[in-house]
Amino acid sequence: MTRVAAPSRPAGVAALFAGVFSLLSCGTGPKDPVDVSPAVPAAPVVALEPAADPAAVARGQALIDRFECVRCHDIPGREPAPLEKHCVRCHQDILRGAFPAPPETLREWQGHITHLTDVPALRGLDRFRRGWLAAWLHAPHDLRPALNSTMPRLSLGTDEAADLAAALIPEPELAAPAPGDPARGRELLGDKSCTLCHRFTGVPNIAPAPKLPVPLDESQLQRGLAQAPDLRFTRERMRPAALVAWLLDPPRHKPGTPMPTIPLTDADARAIAAYLSDTALEPLPTPKPVARLPILDRPVRWPEVEAKVFKKTCWHCHSDPDYARGDGGPGNSGGFGFAPRRLDLASYAGIASGSVGDDGKRRSVFAPLPDGTPRIIAHMLARHLEVEGGAPEQRGMPLGLTPVPLADIQLVDTWIAQGRPQ
Questions:
Q1: What's the rounded Cα separation, in Å, for the pair 16 and 39?
Q2: In sequence order, what are the beta bridge partners of 17?
Q3: DSSP secondary-structure letter at 26?
Q4: Which helix (H) or strand (E) holds 73?
């Protein structure tokens, strides 16, 4: 998939200062003194995003259905997916003991659930730049360093990503307010404990104050820690006017957000926005290559790889439809915009039967790709590269979740090399 760079911030978000003019006296007397009072910032020259094209919005609404966005996200005006297909709500019900299953089964499941227990709701999206969202949907990267899942790389073309962004952000952009003092903004990020939850990659460390400016219960604090985005991307993501309004009162713009209302004046909010938008950033590191570990020199059999890999993670999306209420998951029956691949990783016979390729024919998931890497190994290694910030040709698996540890991939690789013994 071609990686699309995020759109640059429009010219003029930084302050444009008026010049200081020399006022000269008339006649033959001495000149009046030069006025050296501070200049008043001029209104920023901003390329504002207009309202989205209604035709694009309509196409995007259809794409929300096609890509099954409601299986993870709450979207205003949309019914959530049924429980058996709602990845997040299903996990939440299991963890609080409300899922319809025997108590002993719930206890077992509760010990395994680590992913997709909370994701951002898609409310208040008009604070984001539509152009940024389109580029990010097409080539997503990790925005929330503490969240153990990321937006998956869906099979979205650039036009489809633009239409989806139009449906999610149809509103026009408002003009930016007068810029604030970025130096004061940096001080406030520490004084208000913003960096307790947020990372700001690429700037010198900003230590948070020892005490939060507002009381938070433990649940809200933990959600905030998990969902806090890296502030590095704020200048690309957020519309300048919306950023200031958001800082002043987050719950007003997104009810239910874990971001608290921090006591700020309008000048404070504009100062923080100026620092987030204009401070110099160190470049992101180049994605590190992913090392494929050597084949082990001990026997590896199916029960070991089944327990440590396939039944631990892969089974969620590649299961047996007869067992899973008729739905074998997105990687088997299809979903999230993907065609059915008929790949069942729930049993030895299932994985041995392979998957369906683009030509509609069965293919082995163990067959080597041109570089010699078995297909299933290449997909697991690709997930590591995605987390590093790369965009490999193969789509990373597990889709949008924490990568399978390299030592466990090595285990599967060894099992394949040894002829896949049962």
A1: 10
A2: 41
A3: S
A4: none
